[in-house]
Structures are given as C-alpha cells and as structure tokens.
Design goal:
With about 450 residues, this protein is of the alpha/beta class. It is built from 14 helices and 16 strands. α6 links the parallel β8 and β9. α1 packs across α14. The chain is globular, with a radius of gyration of 22 Å. It starts with a strand and ends with a helix.
Length: about 450
C-alpha cells in the first residue's frame, strides 16, 4: 500500500479513445502532460478498438475518421505513412488499425499512466482526492470522466447456472469464448445491432460454422453503406424552424424526402445539427422520440461496411443465420443447453441453443453499471444521471460539477450523439481549451 499523495493538475479517468484524444490535445496544443488512470493493459484502445478481429471494420469511411479538429486528412495521412501508401479515403479500415492510430497519439501525448481503477473521488480543499485500487492516492485540480462504454444491461430472468456453466455470455467481448467455442455449436444472439454484427464476424473468423439465430423485438439489422460515397445534401433535412416535437421533426424529414432527397443523404445531413435539435426538445418529446423513433434512426445512422453487409446477406441466404422477432422472457438451462423463452405477439415460443450471447449493446444506466467510482460520485451527489435516466447530466462544456467534467459516452445523458469520433474529436478539443484556461 502506498501512503504518498500525488499532486496532479488534471486526472483523466479512462484511457480509451476519449481519454487518449483529450490527453493528446492537452499535450500537443498546451504542453500539459495529463495523468490518465485506467486498468486496461493496452491504453488508447477502449472497447471498440481493442478487437483482434480484422473483419471488424469501421462503420465510417476513413475520410471521416480524423481525430484532429481542422485536419480532416489526419487519419488518411497516418494510414499512408504507416499502413498502406495507397489507402483510399473511401475505404472502411479495420478497427484494429484505427486502434494502432490511437495508440500512436497516446505515445505522442505520453501522459503519466496509472494502471489501476479509481474507487472513490472526494472533494478536498478545492481539489479532488482519488483513491486507486493499487493503494495510491492522487489529488487533482480537475477531473475528467472518460469512462467509455460499460457491459450491456442484464437480460431478464437469466438462470445463474447458465452463466456458471459457460452457456450464457453476458459480455460479447470475452476473448475466451471465441477461442473455445465448438465450431458446430448452435448460438443465439440477443439483439440485431452492430454488436451482433461484430459477434457474427468474429465467430466466422474463428472458424464457427454452426447455426446462428439473432433474436430481437423487431429483427432489424443495421443498414448497409452504399458501395460508393453518396452525394451530400447541403441543407439539414430538419431545419431549426421546425417546432420542437418528435412529430414535427418527423414531418419535416418526410417533407425533405418528398422533395427528392434520398434517405441516407437526408440522414447524413443531420449529422452536424442533431445535438442542437435534440436539446430543443422538451423531456417529454425526447422520451417520445426514444420510444417511437430511436431504433429506426439507429439502423439508418449506424451502418455496416458494404463488405460486412455482403457476408451477413450470404449467411442468411445460406441458412446459417436466421432472424427471429421476439422479446426474451427468461433463459434457463435444460439438459446442458440454453432454453430461451421469448414472446412474439401474444404467444410464447422456445429456442434451444448451446450458447447465448448478450448483444444488446453498452448499458447507459450509470446507476447499475459495475463502477465503484460512479456509485461513489452519485452517492455524494457530485454527479447525476441525465433527465431520461441514461448517461450523466452535464452542461454544454461537459461540466458535471465544479472541477469534474465528462467526455464521450457519458454525455449521452444530455446529448443525442456522443459516441462517434466526430463528436469526441470536437469535445476533447474544446475541453482541452477549457482545462488549459483553468
């Protein structure tokens, strides 16, 4: 155990993409060497970019993946210098390669790195005292939560024996599962979003050839990207003059489509204004959007690379992947297999499988995620969930309270978009300015 209290100006909790880009902006633009705290063995990668699977491609073309404000070709230039001199801006690069890019930025920033978990954060004479899992204590003037994504929310009524027996897999990113799964095992995937796509691709690369079933309420897979970049629509499909209701936004969007704008360019035209439109909505309208339109938006906004979509289509055509609509009621163990009972309409139906994988995506309810730090901060009323119960409540600068800020997914308590590189790029640049001024 260490008794020394280390004084640091800025403590960044989390060293995935958000924490790395903040540390890099502070170092490059202001010469400030931040301290990052993260128990991960490999800094900079986070959940998305730590994948070893080269079939996990970015769901944005390389031209849209620069991490540097004002330098749109930063990633492309890095690719051409370090990976392939013929890299095209229109390519969908492997996420593992983007992870190497982030690692290079981490190395440039060279932050002080504590390989530990932060257990608590206490106010201490205008600073914050951080207790770490390795026994160390840091005292920081400013603290940034860059905690990234957490495990998915729990599924209803899962028999604990299913987890103990290695039948139910709560974490779709558990490397051991892919290394040991029987190639002919029957697997049920709960969800049909991008996490499900990732699991399918990794199972395929691991040599799995058994039957796959994807179960979700609507059975909607993400839309595929066009094979070539689509022409841009210059005006937002929903203007700032639209009344602040979900219904009015939908009507304005449909009106744009009726004027001849294609669906996907219309979606893309909202990229720069979606957060502003969201913040104009009162909470009751935000709830209405979440309930009726969110999933439709997600499948159009978060797309598959064309080559990935081709493989998904081929597996469905060959009968190796089937889609089932329904809501999971319970998962039990029966004769060494998973027994998944789901409701479709007014009828209960049962599926049997060798494995069940939770692919429902990261949990945004920060009251229940496995983070002693977040629980401690909430118990002390230093932070609070967003108005709809997800993410954290913050102001336009990401400020949670005096001296504590959030960047990345945690801002989804207030914002509509806060997980993709364009948002994180802008947030980390602006927050670096704010922290440097202080």
């Amino acid at each position: 155990m260490q008794d020394t209290v280390h004084e640091v100006p800025i403590a960044i909790i989390g060293c995935g993409a958000s924490g790395t880009l903040l540390a890099w902006n502070l170092a490059r633009r202001y010469g400030i060497r931040a301290t990052v705290i993260d128990a991960a063995r490999q800094p900079a990668l986070g959940l998305a970019y730590a994948t070893p699977c080269m079939s996990h491609l970015l769901n944005v073309r390389s031209s849209g993946m620069s991490t540097v404000d004002g330098e749109p070709d930063h990633f492309i230039d890095w690719l051409r210098r370090n990976i392939d001199p013929h890299s095209s801006p229109d390519d969908f690069a492997p996420r593992a390669i983007f992870g190497r890019y982030l690692s290079s930025l981490h190395n440039e920033a060279a932050p002080l790195h504590h390989h530990a978990e932060v257990l608590s954060c206490r106010a201490d004479n205008g600073r914050y005292r951080l207790a770490l899992s390795d026994g160390a204590t840091l005292r920081a003037r400013q603290v940034v939560l860059a905690t990234g994504n957490f495990d998915p929310p729990p599924l209803p009524a899962v028999d604990p024996a299913a987890g103990r027996d290695g039948i139910y897999h709560h974490n779709a990113w558990d490397h051991a599962f892919y290394e040991t799964v029987d190639p002919q095992a029957a697997i049920v995937l709960i969800g049909t979003g991008l996490t499900t796509v990732d699991v399918i691709m990794r199972l395929r690369d691991a040599g799995h050839r058994g039957p796959l079933t994807a179960l979700s309420r609507r059975g909607w897979f993400p839309t595929r990207h066009a094979d070539t970049p689509l022409p841009k629509h210059d005006r937002p499909a929903v203007g700032s003059d639209a009344p602040p209701t979900a219904r009015a936004y939908l009507a304005a969007f449909r009106k744009t489509l009726k004027h001849g704008v294609a669906l996907l360019p219309a979606i893309d035209s909202l990229r720069a204004t979606s957060n502003d439109l969201w913040l104009r909505l009162p909470p009751i309208e935000q709830k209405r959007f979440r309930r009726h339109l969110q999933r439709r938006w997600d499948i159009l906004r978060h797309r598959m690379a064309p080559s990935v979509a081709d493989q998904i289509d081929a597996m469905r055509a060959a009968g190796r992947l089937r889609i089932v609509n329904g809501h999971v009621n319970r998962i039990a163990v029966h004769d060494g297999q998973a027994r998944i009972v789901y409701r479709a309409g007014d009828r209960e139906t049962t599926l049997l499988a060798d494995h069940v994988v939770n692919c429902t995506g990261p949990d945004q309810n920060y009251r229940r995620v496995a983070s002693p730090l977040l629980r401690d901060l909430m118990d002390r009323h230093l932070i609070a969930p967003g108005p709809l119960g997800n993410g954290l409540s913050c102001d336009a600068e990401g400020r949670l309270c005096d001296g504590i800020f959030a960047v990345g997914p945690a801002r989804l308590g207030t914002l509509f978009e806060s997980i993709a590189i364009p948002e994180i790029r802008a947030q980390t640049a602006a927050l670096a300015d704010r922290l440097a001024r202080a």
